[in-house]
Design brief:
Length: about 90
């Protein structure tokens, strides 16, 4: 095994239920898929397959029906006066 990564949910901090494993040899990849696909681990069946490249999706800028237009800075609320911003930055 060369590398393994487990993605976590940003909101809950819990694992998302899958992992990515990088193996150096193609023969080892085929053997691992054959051996562990359908294997039962802690009461759950594992699904092991080779990762496929995802299609690139168009960026989502938050548009859609009922979306409010954004200002020049891209925010949805006014940020206040410059004086208030400077005062907040100074208050360590």
């Amino acid at each position: 095994m060369t590398e393994a990564s487990v993605p976590f949910d940003h909101l809950t901090g819990r694992p998302r239920g899958f992992a990515f494993v990088t193996l150096a040899d193609e023969g080892v990849v085929a053997e691992a898929i054959q051996r562990f696909d359908g294997y039962q681990f802690r009461g759950r069946n594992l699904r092991v397959n080779q990762a496929e490249e995802r299609q690139r999706r168009a960026p989502n800028y938050g548009g859609g029906p009922g979306a409010r237009p954004r200002g020049p800075r891209g925010g949805s609320k006014p940020k206040g006066s410059r004086r208030n911003l400077r005062a907040k930055k100074r208050g360590f």
